[in-house]
Write a structure and sequence with these properties.
Helix content: 25-40%
Radius of gyration: 19 Å
Oligomer: single chain
CATH topology of the largest domain: Nucleotidyltransferase, domain 5
């Protein structure tokens, strides 16, 4: 993407970023590894608003590191019951004072905290929410995600244009021809 030419630029750009911007980056260049194990996943930059510029995109890319760590810690806690009370970091990222000093884990272990405020949600994106899931499957899905600690469900509210059809005659905007007002 050419956002930076040297990792040393990152901390300065983060300092310039609008703290209210909501850009979020998923670094799935070769799929998602632990704990998701989805080799078909692709990278995603979302939450872009009129305030999103280069600095905000760089910050979103940097913040994906603690998001990945939080995912692994949540899986560890869920699968083993082990609570991690301290983390140690090494490598080049440790030169970034922003990441090393401003991001911590909340006391309830459900969010990351930056500058005293939570800024992370554990989300799942549901692409076929209106196409191929029964009410019973929805209930099971929601219960499972709640038990896993998910705090947000992001829904695709657009009709599926991949010709998968709609097995249960449900459409996000009312009808298959999309003529009904929202």
């Amino acid at each position: 993407m050419g956002l930076i030419s040297d990792p040393a630029e990152v901390e300065g750009l983060i300092a310039e970023a609008n703290p209210e911007d909501r850009a979020y980056f998923v670094p799935a260049f070769a799929g998602l590894g632990t704990p998701w194990w989805d080799g078909g996943a692709t990278g995603l930059l979302t939450g872009i608003t009129r305030t999103t510029r280069r600095a905000e995109m760089v910050r979103a890319c940097a913040e994906c590191i603690p998001y990945q760590v939080a995912d692994v810690l949540a899986a560890l806690r869920r699968d083993t019951g082990i609570e991690v009370s301290r983390l140690r970091a090494d490598g080049g990222v440790t030169r970034n004072g922003y990441l090393m000093s401003h991001i911590t884990i909340s006391p309830d272990r459900r969010a990351l905290v930056r500058d005293g405020r939570p800024f992370f949600w554990l989300a799942d994106t549901i692409w076929s929410a209106f196409t191929n899931i029964t009410d019973e499957e929805w209930t099971d899905y929601l219960d499972r995600r709640a038990a896993q600690g998910f705090t947000v469900l992001q829904l695709n509210a657009l009709a599926q244009w991949d010709r998968c059809g709609c097995a249960f005659d449900r459409y996000p905007f009312g009808t298959a021809d999309h003529e009904q007002d929202v």
